[in-house]
Amino acid sequence: MSKKYVFEFGGGKADGKAEMKELLGGKGANLAEMASLGIPVPPGFTITTEVCNYYYQHNKSYPPELEAQVKQALANVEGIMQAKFGDPANPLLLSIRSGARSSMPGMMETVLNVGLNEKTLKGLIAKTGNERFAYDAYRRLIMMYSDVVMEKAAGIEPEEGRGVRVQLEHAMEKMKKKLHVVQDTDLTAADLKKLIKIFKTKVKTIIGKEFPDDPYEQIWGGIGAVFQSWNGKRAISYRRIEGIPDEWGTAVTVQSMVFGNMGDKSATGVAFTRNPATGENVFYGEWLVNAQGEDVVAGIRTPNPLNMKNKTEDTKEIQSLEEAMPPLYKELANIRDRLEKHYTDMQDIEFTIQEGRLWMLQTRTGKRNGPAAVKAAVEMVREGLIDEATAVLRVRPAQLDELLHDMLDPAEEQKARVLAKGLPAGPGGATGQVVFTADDAAKWTKEGKKIILVRHETSPEDVHGMHVAEAVLTARGGMTSHAALVARGWGKCCIVGCSALDIDTNKKVMTVSGRTIKEGDWISLNGSVGRVYEGKVPSVRPDLAANKEYTELMGWADKFRKLGVRTNADRPQDAAQARAFGAEGIGLTRTEHMFFGPERIKPMREMIIAEKEADRREAVMKLLPFQRQDFMGLFEAMQGLPVTIRLLDPPLHEFVTLDSDQIKELAKDLGTTVKKLKARVESLHELNPMLGHRGCRLGIAYPEITEMQARAIFEAAAELTKKGIKVYPEVMVPLVGTATEYNHQEAIIRRMAAEVMKETGVTFEYLVGTMIEVPRAALVADDIAKTAEFFSFGTNDLTQTTFGFSRDDIGGFLPIYLQQRILPEDPFQSLDERGVGQLVEMGTKKGRSTRPKLKVGICGEHGGDPKSIDLCHRVGMDYVSCSPFRVPIARLAAAHAALINK
Amino acid sequence: MSKKYVFEFGGGKADGKAEMKELLGGKGANLAEMASLGIPVPPGFTITTEVCNYYYQHNKSYPPELEAQVKQALANVEGIMQAKFGDPANPLLLSIRSGARSSMPGMMETVLNVGLNEKTLKGLIAKTGNERFAYDAYRRLIMMYSDVVMEKAAGIEPEEGRGVRVQLEHAMEKMKKKLHVVQDTDLTAADLKKLIKIFKTKVKTIIGKEFPDDPYEQIWGGIGAVFQSWNGKRAISYRRIEGIPDEWGTAVTVQSMVFGNMGDKSATGVAFTRNPATGENVFYGEWLVNAQGEDVVAGIRTPNPLNMKNKTEDTKEIQSLEEAMPPLYKELANIRDRLEKHYTDMQDIEFTIQEGRLWMLQTRTGKRNGPAAVKAAVEMVREGLIDEATAVLRVRPAQLDELLHDMLDPAEEQKARVLAKGLPAGPGGATGQVVFTADDAAKWTKEGKKIILVRHETSPEDVHGMHVAEAVLTARGGMTSHAALVARGWGKCCIVGCSALDIDTNKKVMTVSGRTIKEGDWISLNGSVGRVYEGKVPSVRPDLAANKEYTELMGWADKFRKLGVRTNADRPQDAAQARAFGAEGIGLTRTEHMFFGPERIKPMREMIIAEKEADRREAVMKLLPFQRQDFMGLFEAMQGLPVTIRLLDPPLHEFVTLDSDQIKELAKDLGTTVKKLKARVESLHELNPMLGHRGCRLGIAYPEITEMQARAIFEAAAELTKKGIKVYPEVMVPLVGTATEYNHQEAIIRRMAAEVMKETGVTFEYLVGTMIEVPRAALVADDIAKTAEFFSFGTNDLTQTTFGFSRDDIGGFLPIYLQQRILPEDPFQSLDERGVGQLVEMGTKKGRSTRPKLKVGICGEHGGDPKSIDLCHRVGMDYVSCSPFRVPIARLAAAHAALINK
After folding, report:
1. In this predicted model, what pLDDT tens digit does every residue of B536-581 receive, in sequence order?
2. N or C: which end of chain A has fewer CB within 10 A?
C-alpha cells in the first residue's frame, strides 16, 4: 500500500486525532478530533507535514501518490457536502490553510474561496440567491490568490507598498471614493462585478498572467503557496525566536468553506471556554452577525458579547448571541462543555453560523494569563476534570510573576505613549517621578514622593537610592547587571540596557524619542516587558494572600517537587519576604553588600590600604561587630532553616573607587599621603577584574578577612543559640578552583568555630562548603568534595568562564548572536545545558563520587529560571536558590521538573 | 624474623644496592653498590627511610628492633676496621650523615668524628702518633655536635648569630687573635687542648648540659639529629620548591671515619668522571693534601688540579694528584673507569686518602650543563656505553636553551654587580645601553648602538623598539606578558616583572638598588635566570651549526618522537629561523601583529570607527594587499609545510588606544568629530576585555574582516601555487565556544576560497579548523569537530578561563599561591594536567569521536614546555607548536615523551 499523505475528516468521522499534531499540525489534528466527536466541522482533509519535508527535499515537488489521495479526499468532501468542486451548478468552495505542530499565528499563508470562477460564481449565486455575497467572495479570492500564490510563484518581489494586493486595494479604495461610500459593505453586487473586472486586468498587467479559472489549478496553487510560506522570511524569523526546528514542517488543511456573511442568519465568532483573563468558569467570547472570521479577529468591527454574562457596562445594550439565536447559542454552549470535558483544558474556539447552521472551525488550548491559569487549574481539579499533578503542570512557572508584582493596568497601558524599550530586568509595573542620583532618590522619597531612579548604570554605592525607588531604569547593562540583580532580588520593577536614553546626570535631564524628561517628570515602567511610558500609568496590585487557588496550587507543587527551594538574600527583610514566599533557607548571602554603609566602608578602606598585616588585621576587626549584627539578623529571620553565607568575593578595588577629593580625605583619615594612597588604589586596578584577585584568592592573601568573617558568623550563631534560637550556618568559600584553596580557607573557618565555641561555651552545628563557579572546580570536584561538605553552583561566573563571556561586556555581541541564532538564548538567563550544564553535572557526579551525601545546590541567577531548574532536578541537586520574588516560581518549576522527568 | 631496618656495607660486600635509593637514600645505596663492586669504601651501615617515617609516626621514637640491628652492624664494622667504638686503646670513629632519595644538598645535618671523648682521644693520639690531628678532630666534634644535636635537643632557638656554634667560633677566633695567628692550622696541639676546655665550659653554660662523653649517647644523638633535620625549616622549604614529598623521609648512614688530614700522605678530593662544563671525556677534579672534604667543598683553600690534563695557565705550576701520588692517582683513575662503565653515566665522586690508602666516600650522577650533557651523551653512544634512546633521555630538554642563545660569560658574570632580579622571560644574555622608549630604541640602533629597552610594560606599539633591542626589561608583567611572549618568540633575552625598577620614562632615568641608571648607561641581562647587572658583561655565542653532537642527538630524538613540532611565527624571518631549528610547519600565526605598521593602522582604525557596514568594508579592504603580502612571505618561508593562520583575535580597542592629540588627528583624517570618535573609542572599552568582544565574535559581528583575511590568505596561496610553490594554508578560527560560531565563520572562509579559486583558476589544498581555548569548546568538541578539520589548543586562554585567572592580573596572588603551595607551579608555564589537561584530553577524545582523523595540536605557550609536551604526547596530539627558539627543546621533549611513555 502506498504511504498515507492525506487524512480526511468530516461527516462524524476522521482518519486523524488530536494526538497527531506532528503529522497533521495543530489545526488539522483538532479538526479531526472534533469530527470524530461528532461535532459539526466543515469536512475536509489534511496533507501531512511529511509532504512539506518531501517538498523541500525534492526540489519543490510532491510525492507521486499525493495527487490521487487528494482527489479521493476531495471526492469524499463532495459527497458529504452534496456539492461538487468546480461544478457550475452546485459548486463546492474550499479554504486552504497552514498548520504547524505549534501555533505560528499569521506567519504562513491562507487562501479562501478556492473553486470560484466565472462559471461557478453563477452557480453560487443561484445556490445562495445572494448575488452580492457571491461577487464579494470572488473579489476576495482574487485579492488573496493573486498575492499569496501568483505573485510569489512568478518570483516577483515587489518593493514595499508596490505588491499586487496593495494595488488591488488601491483600486477598491478608488472605486469607493468615486461612489462616495466608506465601508466595503456599501459596494453593491454591480459595483463588485465591475471591480472584479478591474482586478483581473490589473493582475494580468502586474503579474503578466491571467487569473486562473481552473479550480484545480487554484487548489494546487494554494497548497504550494502554504508549503512555500513555511520558508518565508516571517516564518523563519518566528521559528528562530520561538526555537521551532525547521524540520517540523507545516501541514496543509483543505476544508469546505462555510460563510458567516451570507446574511442575518449567518454569523461568526471566537470564544474561550473560560475567561482567559481571570480563569472564571464562564463561557467567554465575541461574535458578529453577517461577517467572516477575519472581521472579528482583525477588529475592523467591534464585536458583540457572546452571552449575558459577558456583558459589561459598555456592552449591556448590545445583543448577545444568547439573545439573538438562542438555539444556536445553546448548541454552541453544549459543544463548549463537550470540548472542555474532552480536552480537560480551557479551549480557544472559532465558529461560523451559515444560514442558521453552526460549524466549528477550530479548537485549541486557550492562552491565559497568570491569575487565570492558576484559578482555572485549581477549579478544574475541584470540578474533577483533572488531577492535582495536571493542575500543577497547567501553570507555567513564569506566569506566577503576574501574581507577585504590582503591574500596570493593561487597559491604561494601551493608551500610554511608549518612550523606549529596554531589557525586562525586574518584572512588574511602576510609576514615579524621575530622579538621576541615588542621593536625590533618598531626599525625594523622604519628602513623600514616589520616584524612579534613572542611571547610566548602577553601582553598589547607588543601593540606598535603588532601595527607596519605585523602580530603576538604566541606559546600560544586561539582565544580570548590578541594577538587574539588585532590583530583582527585591522584587522591584527594573528596566536595564535602555540605550535610547541620553542621560545628562549633571543637568538632571534626559532625552529620549525626541522628548526631554527633566527631574521630577513622571514616567511609568512595565518591567515585565521592558517598556518605558511617558506620564503616569496607574498600577494594580494582585492580592496574593487572598488568593486561595494560588495557595492550594502551591501546596500541590510542594508535594510533588524533589528540589528544595532557598533564597538569595543579604538583608533580614528580604529573607523574611522570601520565607513568606516559601523559601526553605538562604542559599546565598553576599557579604560584600554589607560593607558599603558609611560607618563600614571606612574600616574596609583602611584594611585595603594597610601595608602591614597587623594594621590590616586591626582595621578588619573593626568590621567584626557590624558583620556579627548582620548575621544575627539573617539567622533570626531564618531561624530553624539553614543560612549559607559566602565569604567576601569581589576584588578590593570595588571598595576604593574614589574621586580626588575622597582620596584626599581618606589619606588624611588614614594618616597617609595622597601619593601613597593613589599608588595603592592604582595597584589594585586590574585588566580583567572578573578573573583577578577576588574570591578565595582574597582570603588566602589576607587570611584575616576570612578570620573576621568566620568569627562574626560563629559569634552570631553562638549568641542566638544561647537564646534558644536554632541556627544552621553554612559557610561558603567563593571562587575555589583547587582543593588546596578550599582546604586553606576551611582550616581557618574551622579554627574560628572551635575558638568561638571554646570562648562562649556554646556548641552549634555548621557546615563548610564551596561555590563551584570556575570550570576547574567542576573538573576536580572529587578532590574538593573530600573536604567540602556542600557545593553551590555559581552559574553566573561559571557561565562567564565556560564561554569566556564577560556578562558586563556581552552587550557588544549578544544581540547579534541571538539574532543570528549563534546562541539559542542568553546563557546568563537560562543555563546552557550542553556546555555549562555538562560541568554542573560533572561537578555533582564527581563530588558525590568521593562524598556520596554531598549537599548540592545552585545560587546563580539560573536558580530562579524554570528551564534551568529542570536541569538542576535532573542532575540530582538538593536545592535551588533564587531571589525572594522568584521563590514561588522556583517551587512550581521544581514541581514541573519532578512531574515531567518522572 | 624481625624487619630489616639496617643495611650494612664494607669489606667487599653489602646488603643493599644502587636501586634501593627509596629505602637507603642516594648516598647509602651508592655506598652499598660500590662496596659490592669491591671498591674501597669505609665500612658502615644505613638506617632506612622507613625508620624516619616510623620516627615521625611514633612520637619521635624508634622501632624496637632497631637498637639490636645497629649494635650488630656496628660490631661488623669494628670487625672490618679492626678497631672498637669507644675503645680507649684502639677507637673506631664514625660519621653520621643524611641521605634522601634525591639529593637535598646542605639541607640536613651531618656529625663527624663521633666516638671521641677524653679517653678515646688518648687512644687516637697513640694510634696515629699525631696529637694535633686528634685534638683538632675532637674540637670539630664538639663544635658540630653541640650545634646539631645538643642545642636542638634542648629546644633552644637562638637568635641569629647567638647560637652555640657561633659562640664557639668566636672563642676560637679570640684565641687565634691572642696568639697572633691567622689559620686554624696554626693552632698547636696545646692550643687546641686549651680550646677544647673552653669549648666544654661554654657548651655547659649555653646549653645547660655537659658535652656527652658516652660514645653511644653520641651515636644515637647523631642519628636523632639527622631524622630531626628532615623536618627542619630549610629542608621543608627545599622540598616545597623541588616538589619532594614529605613522606619520602631520609635515611641515615653511619660510616667509619677516614681522615684526609692526617699529614702529607693524606689527602681529599672531589672529581667528575668527565668534564661537567664541556662533556669532554677527561677525568676532571680537584684535591687538597692534608685536608678534610669540607675544606675542598667550602672553598677555604684553593684546591689543586687532579691531573695534568686539568691544568690551566693559572694552575700549571701546581702539583696534581697524578704527580704527587702516582700509584694512588692510578688507582683512582681505575675506579673512575669502573664506575662509569658500571653506572653508564658521568659520576660525581668524593675520595679521601688516609695515610696512603684510598677510600671512596661517595658516587652519584654528575650534574652537567647543556653543552656537556649533549657531548657526553653522544660520545657515550660512540663508546658503546649507552644506546641512542638512553642518550636522548640523558639531556633535559631545557638544557638545550644553553646551546641556542648567546649567554653572559659565566666567569665575568660572577664578578658583576647585581642590580635587580626579575622573571626569566627570555633566556640568554645581553648587554647594551639603556633606552626608555621604543622610538629611542629605533633611533639609537640606527646610529649603530646596542641598546636594551626598559619599559614599565610593553604593548604592541612597542614592537618596533623591542625588535631592534638586544634585550627587553620590564618592571611589570609575568612570564606570559606581552613583552615575554614577543621576546621569547624572537629568542630575545628578556626579563619581566622586575619590580625593583623605579622608572621615570619622562625623565629617561630609573633608580634601582640605590643606583640611578640614565639613558645611555650600560646594563647587562641574564635572561635565563632573570638577573640584571650594572655595566657591560661580555657574552659568548655557542656555535650550534658546528656542534656535531647536537646534530646527531637531535637526529635520534626525531627518530623516536611521535609528535610533530611546529612553530608560532608571525614574520618570514622568524619562520625561517624556526625552520632552521627543525620546525615542521607553522602552528600559529597571529595576524593582529600585522596591523600595527603605520600604513596599516590607519585603515584598521577607519574600519573600527566606521558606523556603516559599507564604510567598514571599504576600510578593511584597504588592508587586503598588506595581508596578502604578509601571507606570501610566510608561505614562501615555509614552502612545502603547513601554515596555520589565526584570524583576528584581540578586542578592537587595542587598536585605538589614543591620546587626545591622536584622537584629534584621526577625527580629521576620518572626517568625523572628536566627540563622535571619542564616544566610539569609549564604547569599545570593556570591563573584562579578555572575556569580551574578541576572537570569532569579531568575525561574526564584522564578517567583512573574516572575508578580507580569508581572501588575503587564499589570494596569496593562489599566487604562489601559480609559481610552483607548494602551500598548505590552515585557516584557524579563534575563541570558538559553539559549533554555530565555527560554522558561521567556516562558511565565509570556504566561500572566499571558492571565489579566489574561480577568479584565479588555481586550485590549492587548505584546511579550516579552530582554536580550542574556552572550556565550552572542549565540552562540545564532538559538535565542533563535525565541521572543523583541525583543533589547536590555545592553552594560554584555556588556562585563564578554566581557572578564572587573568594572566595579566595573576601577579596579585600567584606569588602567595606558589609560596604556600596552593599551586605547585605557575599554570601558565606548565600545563595544569589535572584541570586544564582534563579539558585538553576531553576535547581531543570528543573531537575524534565524530572525526577520527581530526588533526590536533597545541599552540599555547605550553607547546614549548617539556612537561606539557609529555601530556600532549599522552593525549595523542599530532603536533605541538612553540616559539622558534623552543623548537629544538620541543623536539627533544617529544622524544622523551615517546621513550618514557612507551
Report:
1. 999 887 778 788 999 999 999 999 999 999 999 999 999 999 999 9
2. N
- pLDDT single digits (tens) B480-489: 567 877 787 6
Active site residue A493: no
* Residues A653, A254: Cα–Cα separation, whole Å: 68
Q: Of chain B residues 810-869, which have a CB less than 8 A from chain A?
A: 812-813, 816-817, 820-823, 832, 834-836, 838-839
Distance CA B882, CA B860 (A): 7
CA neighbor of B885 nearest in space, from B489, B555, B589: B489
- Backbone angle region of A11, left / alpha / beta, with phi > 0 → left and psi within -120 to 50 → alpha: left
- A693 vs A653: CA distance, rounded Å: 10
State the Cα–Cα distance between residues B595 and B608, nearest whole angstrom. 12
Q: Residue A8 is inside which H or E element, if any?
A: strand A6-10
Question: Helix %, strand %, coil % for chain B, to 5?
Answer: 50, 15, 35
Region of poorest pLDDT, from A586-600, A640-654, B792-806? A586-600
Q: Do B690 and A773 touch (CB under 8 A)?
A: no
Catalytic member of B52, B405, B467, B482: B482
The DSSP code for B148 is I
d(CA A167, CA A161): 8
Q: Do B808 and A832 touch (CB under 8 A)?
A: no
Could you tell me the three cell numbers for B466?
623591542
Q: In whole angstroms, what is the distance from residue A831 CA to residue B637 CA?
A: 47
Cβ A540 vs Cβ A560: under 8 Å: no
- Number of residues that make up chain B: 902
pLDDT confidence of residue B410 = 78
- A859 given a catalytic annotation: yes
Q: Is B775 on the interface with A (CB under 8 A)?
A: yes
B84, B50 contact by CB (below 8 A): no
* Residue B747 in grid coordinates: 562558511
Which cell numbers in the block locate residue A327? 438555539
| Residues B835, A776: C-beta atoms closer than 8 Å | yes
Contact A766, A753 (CB under 8 A): yes
What is the band of A871 on the pLDDT scale with cuts at 50, 70, 90? very high
B86 φψ region: left (φ > 0), alpha (ψ -120 to 50), beta (else): left
Q: What totals of helices (H) and strands (E) does chain B contain, helices first? A: 37, 34
C-alpha span between A202 and A195 (Å, rounded): 10
Q: Where are the beta strands (DSSP E) in B582-666?
A: 586-590, 642-646
Q: How many CB atoms lie within 10 A of CB B311?
A: 18
Q: By CB neighbour count within 10 A (0-12 exposed, 13-18 middle, 19+ buried), where does A265 fall?
A: middle
Could you tell me if A258 and A42 are in contact, meaning their C-beta atoms sit under 8 angstroms apart?
yes
User: Alpha-carbon distance A857 to A877, whole Å?
Assistant: 6
Helices A548-560 and A887-900, packing angle to 10 deg: 50
Tell me how far apart the terminal alpha carbons of chain A are, to the nearest angstrom. Answer: 39
Residue A626 CB partners (closer than 8 Å, separation 6+): A594, A597, A599, A600
Rounded to an integer, what is the distance from CA B597 to the centroid of its chain?
36
Distance from CA of B99 to the nearest CA of A (A): 30
**Rounded Cα distance, B661 and A40, in Å:** 80
pTM of the model: 0.82
Q: Pull the grid cell for residue B108.
A: 640536613
The DSSP code for A507 is T
List all residues 6 or more positions away from B657 whose beta carbon is below 8 Å from its beta carbon: B459, B461
The candidate with the shortest Cα–Cα distance to A436, out of A450, A421, A464, A456, is: A456
* Angstroms from A421 CA to nearest CA on chain B: 20
The secondary element (H helix, E strand) that includes residue A325 is none
CA B753 to chain centre: 45
Q: B44 - beta bridge partners?
A: B9, B255
